[in-house]
Write a structure and sequence with these properties.
This protein is about 45% helix and about 15% strand. The protein is α/β, with parallel strands linked by helices. The protein has a single domain, classed as NAD(P)-binding Rossmann-like Domain (Rossmann fold, 3-Layer(aba) Sandwich), CATH 3.40.50.720. Strands 3-2-1-4-5-6-7 form a seven-stranded parallel sheet, with helices on both faces. Helix 4 packs parallel to helix 5 and helix 7 crosses helix 8. About 45% of the residues are buried.
Length: about 250
């Protein structure tokens, strides 16, 4: 599908990758972008800057009532960007309880599922459209020092495949973006070079227009997929070693 004259909704659209998507859609000629934000006021500056084509919507993806209300309000949507996500700095076994892992599943998996379920009928009514799920390299390979984040993103990757199959007959393209090292607040703990969020948004636009099912958005994502293909066991050992590095740096 073409972005020109489309109407999109972006979860977590008030900052980071979400904000980059909002800007990229409007630059590409979208008619309107709904800026989903857990705190409505957090999107006010962005929407004020971009004008009437950017519309703030209160949207906590873990709140089914808010997701339903957003679907009712945004009945003209033909593109859904599931970008909202959370990372908690807790390991699976070492954490005091499972609340952090549960929160990551609630946002990164069930939040995506809720958005897909509510907006699928709207996309069908509007001609098919597209759903793009913003995932992570952590969806391709387990990253033990990231605790429940990796399992939640892996689950969302499987969800993407299943939803694609379910919505194929209504003409909805369902794709996933595999994000590596990008300069966002969530990636503060990631060391090394980081690419700007606009790189992910640009890749997302291309994935929509070219019907790409899964796309690596940046250099780290490409390199990690290649390393996984070459020697998965060695890469697993390297990921496990990050636990020891974290212990040395934090003293935990």
């Amino acid at each position: 599908m073409q972005i020109k004259d489309s109407v999109a909704i972006v979860t977590g659209g008030n900052r980071g990758i979400g904000e980059a998507f909002v800007r990229e859609f409007l630059n590409a000629g979208a008619r309107k972008v709904y800026v989903g934000s857990r705190v409505l006021e957090a999107a006010s500056n962005l929407c004020g800057e971009l004008g009437e084509k950017a519309v703030a919507v209160q949207l906590d993806v873990t709140d089914e009532g808010q997701v339903s209300a957003a679907a009712e309000l945004c009945g003209d949507v033909d593109v859904v960007i599931n970008n909202a996500g959370v990372f908690n700095d807790e390991t699976l076994i070492g954490a005091a309880d499972i609340s952090a892992a549960r929160n990551e599943m609630d946002v990164n998996y069930f939040g995506v599922l809720s958005m897909c379920r509510e907006f699928a009928p709207i996309l069908k009514k509007n001609g098919g459209g597209a759903i793009i799920n913003v995932l992570s390299v952590a969806a391709l390979l387990p990253v033990p020092n990231m605790g429940g984040y990796s399992p939640s993103k892996s689950a969302a990757r499987s969800l993407t495949t299943n939803v694609r199959a379910e919505l194929a007959k209504q003409g909805t393209h369902v794709g996933a973006l595999i994000v590596g090292s990008v300069d966002t607040r969530m990636a503060d703990q990631v060391q090394g070079a980081k690419e700007p969020p606009s790189v992910v948004a640009t890749a997302g636009i291309r994935a929509i227009e070219k019907n790409i099912r899964e796309m690596d958005t940046d250099r780290m994502a490409v390199e990690m997929r290649a390393a996984l293909a070459r020697d998965p066991q060695n890469l697993e050992r390297k990921m496990a070693a990050l636990l020891d590095l974290e212990t040395l740096s934090t003293g935990r």
